[in-house]
Amino acid sequence: MIAVMGQFPPTAELVERVRALPAVAPVLGVLDDAWVVGGAVRDVLLGGQPADLDLVVEGDAVAAAGRLAQALAGELVVHDRFGTATVRVAGHLYDLATARAETYEQPGALPDVRPGTIEEDLRRRDFTVNAIAVALDGRIAAAPRAFEDLDVRRLRVLHDASFADDPTRLLRLVRYATRLGFAVEEQTDALARAALAAGALATVTPTRVGAELRLLLREPSAVEALGRVAAWEREPLGAALAVDPALDERALALLPADGREDLLLLGTSLRDTSPGTLGAWLDGLGFQARERDTVVAVAGAPGVADRLAAATRPSEIAAAVRGAPVEAVALAGALDEAAAPAARAWLADLRHVALAIDGDDLLAAGVPQGQAVGRGLAAALRARLDGRAPDRAAQLAAALAAAAE
Fold this sequence. Notes:
405 residues, alpha+beta, Beta Polymerase, domain 2, cca-adding enzyme, domain 2, 4 domains, seven-stranded mixed beta sheet, two-stranded antiparallel ribbon, 21 helices, 11 strands, disordered N terminus
């Protein structure tokens, strides 16, 4: 299984390049029989310097992780269900697993796993370019054509049943193709199309599909990747995606640093979906409640855009976006040129405007506890936003007047 082709270095040079990684240095002398596998080796061969490593051992991965954590005084997390472990130390993350072989009882099911050799472990992986392993003691193993495919920047599955065994590889195919700029090998493309046509993703639990979708959305190439998924026929994800790269670009340009690009992009692509349908779909995919609510709000941004376009004063802008997350406001500004100035004003400045008073000040001034306090504070904030109450005294006066109404 050892092969070196094209532009890639001889085996000894490859080993030295892997051993020279800053993330590898802490492992040397502790787990010299461990294999660095997958994306880390791929990225090294492409000129990268991965900070996190996937390590495979032909033995007990949990015990190996324990030795590594003890030697490096790192944080150890054991995943009992999968027999894997994670060690975090000094800016590096190490995922350790036992070399294993897999069989699939039926398409889309989780695999039956048994301990195996490094060769068997590589054969179970998704694409040839991710099936290269370098042991810290100098050994190299690779799937057939792995180096050849990496040399010409091509994605190829390791066997014809790959997408049937694990249909989430369809989403990984898009993710890697767009992130790395790799072409899809002709037979792999045909297999992917056949799997989509056969409804392969429906054989997988929605939460697994959701996990892969979230990874795709976090990629720098997420807009392109979503566009490719949207072009799939028969809506295999269970929702109709509508991707507009120009709209995405405008919305991302408005999104502040504390916003979530992934949730903005997903909500933008689903803006034609009803809130109830969208919320149920996101729940099924395993999105957290806050993430779900943000995506649903983004999808409803056209209504926010209409209100923003009609707003003239800062207090009207605040009322137009009340309850909307920054992601929805960013999309609203991108959807309508008339709404864009108000959206920019809110995102850059108005949302940070705060009062110099609070409810305790109103209670101390004799306002009874209850709705009057809220009414007073809301009036003070409107006055503050519109420049009518720049200081504490003016804000208190505005609040007391409104509370007395």
